[in-house]
Amino acid sequence: MRLATLRTPSGTRAVRVDDDALVELNAPDLGAWLARPDWRERTATASGRRRPVEGARFAPLVPQPSKVICVGLNCRRHIEEMGRPLPTFPTLFTKFADSLTGAGDPLARPVETDQFDWEGELVVVVGAEVRRADGEAAAAAIAGFSVANDATCRDWQNRTNEWMQGKNGESSTPVGPWLVTPDELPGGVRPACRITTEVNGVWSRTTRPPTSSSIRSRSWPTRRRSCGSGPAT
């Protein structure tokens, strides 16, 4: 299944994506829908108002996530290119909810930076509360996957050892347009896929294999609901 948060004249709505149609779900956004314990069953049988995909305007998948936990230094080849040792533990940083924006929204360079950069990243959406989860429980909590553009002010990021100030520009992280559930991806909760980043229609980068699986990364931080966790470097 594919799910999204749609912008409408009367506010946002959670929707199921069916080829060229969007089927409204009974929730204001995807975060609220995923909070229902039976969201999978209800999504499959939903028959709400249908809207066309063409011309649709999507909000961030989860407009108000409780946490956005990002995993840095996650690409082995990129780490080796920088001459850094492979990390023993995940390098984590956070993003604020207002740093997220819709996948089709304009992305403007903040006037304070001279080193505005971009990276296509995998997003893991956690759809259940978990705490001290082992690998099996962490896998069961994954609602699905999406992509994000981790736009970064590199000069601000590298001012200190903490990256947060370069990663949280307002509306600087397009997410979506939709979530894809693990059953539709090769590899399931360990998706075997590539993420290709294009800038103005020109190929920029293809994401390399991560240094650790999404399951191991998800089972390390604890207690989250419906949070987009986008690995970022």
Set down the secondary structure blueprint.
Layout: E1 2-8, E2 11-18, E3 21-24, H1 30-34, H2 39-45, E4 50-52, E5 57-58, E6 69-72, H3 76-81, E7 91-94, E8 100-102, E9 116-117, E10 120-126, H4 135-141, E11 142-149, E12 152-153, H5 154-157, H6 164-167, E13 173-175, E14 179-180, E15 196-199, E16 202-206, H7 214-218, E17 228-229
Description of the structure:
- This protein is α+β, with helices and mostly antiparallel strands.
- The protein has two domains: 57 residues, no CATH class; 161 residues, Alpha-Beta Complex (Fumarylacetoacetate hydrolase, domain 2).
- It is built from seven helices and 17 strands.
- The strands form six sheets. Strands 1, 2, 3, 4, 5 and 14 form a six-stranded antiparallel β-sheet that branches.
- A hairpin with a 2-residue loop joins strand 2 and strand 3.
